Model the fold of this input.
Amino acid sequence: MIKGVIFDLDGVLVSTDELHYKAWKRLAEELGIDNFTREDNEKQRGVSRMESLEVVLNKSDKEYSQEEKVALADRKNGYYVEMLQKLDSSALLAGAVETLKMLREKGYKIAVGSASKNAPLIIEKTGLLPLIDEISCGLDITKSKPDPEVFLVAAKKLNLEPKECLVVEDAAAGVEAAKAGGMKSLGVGPYYKSLGADYASETLLDVNWETVLK
Ligand code: B16
Ligand code: MG
Done:
């Protein structure tokens, strides 16, 4: 029986993809990579900061040491965090607030399970904090999706068994992580049909919650 819902953040509750894109694009241009595209940015959906950096560096002939890579990821994060300061509720995706309120009224526990180390800042800036019981994010984990760690930490924080949790995700790596953790999954977003989730809906507004939560 499902007792809690774990929401991925970026691409499910909030849209920060444009800001990630702008920050990576700025870094790429500084490195002389002028062909970093929105298509490349799609490959960064749901994956960790260091793996996202590899998507950018794959477009360069230059080799970088691990130390240089960490500095580049930090530089990109600086640009991203600078833009996050202006984030507000206009970044919330359709149906996010209504869904969280509805689930809470029905007595479900709510967590966020996000790869982002900036999740607490994003949640605060968009006003989601009062609607969420627990946050499990990039700061809590050592292994990124498709490893289930971020969702297992979320379940633990909610005091629930994995099989009592439903994960809502917009990325294939996240759906894989949910499965690996023994959790049911609902895929949403532009690729909802091909994520391999147990249930799928284009947006949070189209979900048949009665079926998904049974
Ligand atoms: P940060 P999610 C993910 O968030 C983003 O989709 C992904 O593009 C980003 O690289 C990752 O967080 C790490 O973010 O650099 O802020 O720590 O979809 O797991 O909520
Ligand atoms: Mg996501």
Summary: Residues 8-11, 20, 44-49, 52, 77, 114-118, 138 surround 1,6-di-O-phosphono-beta-D-glucopyranose (ligand 1) (CB under 6 Å).
